[in-house]
Amino acid sequence: MKSIKIALTSMFLILSSYASAVEISSNVGLSSDYIWRGITQTNGDPSVNGGFDLSTDLGFYIGTWASNANVGTASMELDIYLGFSGEMAENMTYNIGYISVIYPGNDAADFEEAYVGFDIYGLSILYSDGQNDGPSYSEIGYSVDAGPGSFNISYGEYEDTGDNTLVGYDWGIGDFSLGFYYYDFEAHKNNSSGVDDDGAYVSLSRSF
Fold first, then answer.
1. What is this structure's pTM?
2. Cα 182 to Cα 164: distance, rounded to the nearest angstrom
3. Distance CA 182, CA 172 (A)
4. How far apart are CA 173 and CA 33, in angstroms?
């Protein structure tokens, strides 16, 4: 696990030195609930989040993102990730990377995943491989322009945890993005602590 992270970080630093352009971006957001893979991370309370990304014109990126959370004894989630993305052909992109999810104050909940994703004419496919025998996650979705925004739907399977469906509409308003979502979660039979859940939430975000 550590060797993978060291190799990816080293590759990023080396190739960044050859890139002719490095871009730094940031984002902030507010959501009425923090839903992740169909499961609330804030017990239904609002979420304030934000992050920073550094990317090169070669496609390599590294970034961090944080949000308030309610996971065991942890009141915060911190993500650190790096990877490589690019375009295979017109309207066809890929994204390969590694993410470490950290819950300060609740080390037992920390986990890491290696992921690969594709977007082909609005059809998205994602697979995340949990490290250290962690559960894997797979998801398929579709997004299409509709009116002033875009309509999207996705279905995901989280190994031994549950399946989730998400339907949403993202609307760009000036420099902001307003999202409306409905989610449905069905706990896996092996998930003794999981319960079926569904609901709706809204989000407001901006990128810089």
1. 0.88
2. 11
3. 18
4. 21
